[in-house]
Amino acid sequence: MDRSTIDLWVGIFVALGVAALLGLAMKVGNLTSSNIGETYSVSAAFENIGGLKPRAPVKSAGVVVGRVDNITFDSNRFEAIVKINIDKRYAFPKDTFANIYTAGLLGEQYIGLEAGGDEDTLKNGDKITQTQDAVVLEKMISKFLFNKAAETEEDEPKKGASATKSADTKSKELGDPPF
Amino acid sequence: MIKSNLLISIIRTLRGIGKRMIERVWRLGAGARFFFLTIIYSGESFRRFHLVMREVYFTGVMSLLIIIVSAFFVGMVLALQGYNTLQKYGSSEAIGVLVALSLVRELGPVVTALLFAGRAGTAITAEIGLMKTTEQLSAMEMMAVSPIARVVAPRFWAGVISMPVLAALFSMVGILGGYLVAVPLIGVDEGAFWSQMQANVDVREDIINGVIKSVVFGVACTMIALFEGFDAPPTAEGVSRATTRTVVISSLTVLGLDFVLTSFMLSV
Predict the structure, then answer these.
(1) Candidates B54, B198, B211; nearest CB to A28
(2) Which of B37, B56, B86, B149 is deepest in the core (most CB within 10 A)?
(3) What is the distance between the terminal CA atoms of chain A, rounded to a whole angstrom?
(4) Which parts of chain A sit beneath pLDDT 50?
């Protein structure tokens, strides 16, 4: 095989490789969707961020409007400070609500923004004051179990009577005779 | 008498172990020096780039068939196996993520490197070993042509260029194979297949890391094949032993390096 044919084949080979890489980046990876242009950054303080990670999506009405930039710990107030970058095309009112949600039952966590009614908009370096922490599954389960236990303890001696339930259980725990 | 025999046999064993260890360390040092020389002499091979091109043709283009066919089957098997398990948890749509991540992160670079060691590495070792046996390398030295610059460096760079290309093709063809099994054959929703994949495969963390892995494997596989060929005893038996060693050492090195690289990449 003479040299020019070899060159042609090597050219085809390398072109195939570059095409495969581009295909991986565009079709398989998230190069196209993660491409947020100009952004402005705001911060939000949470008492518990659960499993939130840097580069997690920031969504509003289900649309990705930004990404989590970094997460730091404020040792004065014992809170997590989450810095998020939001696309410049989207402006949010100053009293926007930031929640940490979970995609699906066990999916990844993301920040959901719910717009408020303020006329001023968030600017670069602003702080979102209204936040809601991540739901910790263990806390929820223990709360549920505790309520359930209180209910069944209540139900057996007196059928029903939901109004005096909590007072009654409390007095039982304290050792007072039920009245 | 028995005691002294025992002592002698113990000493002989220890001596054997020591000799083997020194041999290993010597080979490691020689390999490192060889690698260094190859890098130094590679300037010349870039000046005569058609030499590299010819080697890319032999190591890369001629490996296309085995890479594409095996990638296709690996992707199809991944999709079948993945569907079988994921379906139990009611998340068969995640099959796209499973196929793409396992190919891009692990199987693409690793299986390509193993196939590359078997297909191209052995050819390199046998060729250079035979060149040495037939004294072609000594003849080059006589003509004041450095065999490392003329024979070794072009093959080294050809391997380093071919590996990432082959690994990228492997991942892409594997994903296509997985797609063909998951969507038309099993009936997973096409939109979910691609969108879940795109949402969970990160360009920098998954794809670029896969490319880095394949470059490292390319350097390791090619270097081992070249060194084994260059270091082979100039006999028929020596060349055949060296060829076998190429496959064994390359495979073990690739798998070991894969663990090291993965632990670096995941800890960041």
Answers:
(1) B198
(2) B56
(3) 104
(4) none
**Distance, CA of A134 to CA of A136 (rounded, Å):** 6
Same-domain check for residues A99 and A72: yes
Residue A29 lies in a domain: yes
Question: Cβ–Cβ of B53/A7 closer than 8 Å?
Answer: yes
Could you read off the pLDDT of A27-44 as tens digits, one per residue?
A: 777 665 555 678 888 999
Structural domain span for residue A160: 138-174
Whether A22 and A88 map to the same domain: the answer is no
pTM to 2 decimals?
0.73
Q: Has residue A68 been placed in a domain?
A: yes
Instruction: Indicate whether A179 belongs to any domain.
Output: no
Stretch (H or E) spanning A151? helix A137-155
Number of domains chain B is built from: 1
- Domain extent for B42: 2-267
The burial of B12, by beta-carbon neighbours within 10 Å (0-12 exposed, 13-18 middle, 19 or more buried), is given as exposed
Cβ of B172 within 8 Å of Cβ of A24? The answer is yes
Q: What is the ipTM of this complex?
A: 0.73
Question: Using CB atoms, which residue from A6, A12, A28 is nearest to B104?
Answer: A28
Residues A98 and A29 in one domain: no
Identify all chain B residues contacting A20, using CB atoms and an 8 Å cutoff. 165, 168-169, 171-173
Please indicate, yes or no, if residue A31 is contained in any of the structural domains: yes
Residues 6+ apart with CB under 8 A from B83: B92, B95, B181, B182, B186, B188
Lowest mean pLDDT among A142-156, B109-123, B140-154: A142-156
Q: Is there a single domain that holds both residue A49 and residue A23?
A: no
Closest residue to A13, CB basis, from B50, B61, B104? B61
